[in-house]
Amino acid sequence: MRFHEGKLKHLTRFLVLILGIMIVMKFVPMRTYAASKFDVAVKIASKTQTKTVSVTKGNSIQIVTTDAGKTVAKKNLKYSSDNKAVATVSNKGVITTKKVGKAKITVTSKNGKKKAVLTVKVVGSKVAVKSIKLSSKKLTLTKGKSAKLKWTIAPETASKQNVTWSSSNSKIAKVSKGKITAVKAGTATITAKVDGKKATCKVTVTETVIAVTGITLDKTSATLGKGDTLQLTETVTPAKATDKSVTWKSSNESVVTVSESGLVTAAGEGTATVTCTAKDGSGKSVTCSITVETATGQYGGVTWKLTQLSSAPTYSLEITGNGALPDRMIGVEGYVTPGWERYKSKIVKIVIGSGVTKIGYQLFSDYPNVKTLVLNEGLEEIGDEAFWGALGLEGELVIPASVTSIGKRAFASCNDNGNVRDTTKYNMTSIVFKPNSSLKKIGQEAFYDILSLSGSEISFPDSLEEIGQSAFTMYGDNSGFTKIHFGSNSRLKIIGDSAFYGHELLTSISTLPGTLEYLGSGWRESVNLNYIAYNGSHTKWSNLLTDSGCGTYAYTFYWGHLYYDETEGNTFVTFLE
Length: 577
Known about the structure:
By secondary structure, the chain is mainly β. It is 6% helix and 41% strand. It contains 2 helices and 50 strands. The chain has an 8-stranded parallel beta sheet. Strands 1, 3, 4, 6 and 7 form a 5-stranded mixed beta sheet that branches. It has a 5-stranded mixed beta sheet with strand order 28-29-30-32-34, with no helix packed on it. It is elongated.
């Protein structure tokens, strides 16, 4: 068949076009989107470590395992997946995602003693970037020099990993793929952006380098207690040094650690050296020797020991041995402060052992955070102001049977000037004297203004002979004990003036001892008092009031809003003789 010449030309062009397309398809591959592979770090330890990552379906993960900061070879690890339909893991730690879902990948040391579990959430959509962080926030460069910024994207498996870089002034500093080049003197801000998140680094460019010639610290040595912190501050010279930044390092991190800002933290007993070094390469450095004290020692012949509690950095102080704890005599020549004193704000529990016979003057005064106080048998004397202002005491205070005296202001809430502290911080709810007590005296203001005792009852031991002036005075609405009890064999001789002043809640006293020789004033606030059992006769009562300065039997004696007088008779006192 004969083709028309025009048609033949068109057919020829068509065949050439088809042939060209085939050649292009053979030698120029079609555009595809390769799956991404991410490095994800996990830590193994004796206590199983856990981590969760989200990853887009089709992407893979290379597990990078560390143990105590060191990378562990893949051949020394075992890998497993609990859901292979979602994600599998090879013996080289490569996770391959299969479908949307969740799988737990377990990484185990070959001896099986250390483990980590990586939970992989396979999603169908992209994983958004949460943050980007640069290796430096500030840099100082000399004109013509360059520096490379490293960056970290979180999470590691974010779908977008391509970072775009820009400079606020490329005439001063320019940037390409994180590499900064100093162009001329001045400042510029380098910005890294990915998926709508950004991080910046301020770059200062100098014409010439002014090297560091020296560094000094505000302290060259220090002594700390375990858990204490100390901020070291450096001074770099000259003031116009090109790069005044420094690094910090501890010679023994089991003794002290130090942050990048120079904050020292005492970790354990011993001595370590903290070194501050200039970053400009000048080699200049300075050191500070840090001693972390032992948490035990001797004081006045007894032994003390501090034990750090789980609520770190708080401590329990235990005192053992035989003998008296000396008075606290700050300012007196020759007085040595007890070794535990530096921890006073962190001590929450005090245990006084059975061999300790006395707690000296002001020894635990103003220990504001002590919540628990344990006093063991063998203790005989609680000295004046021994626990004065210990506002944190909680619950029941138990006085051992061996105690014979409680000193002036031993547990009071007032300062030297008599100004009331914030008594709302007190949580002491009751006072208990152990059976067969030897207690003879409760000193002046011994339990002054502890409002948290309000609403409780108190039973005094038969051995007690004196309750001092203002011993239990309270200032506050609806304050005071509700009932006061004395035993039938009580040997009490003196109740000082205002011993129970302000006890509005007090309703009864039983049995007021017939051995009383002095009954102090200051009961008029006890407006609810309606019953007193007195272990004596009318005559003894009259003599007691007269001897206490309350006038003759015929005078009205006010006790709250009730009274006793010769003509109207007794309205609230029951005489037991």
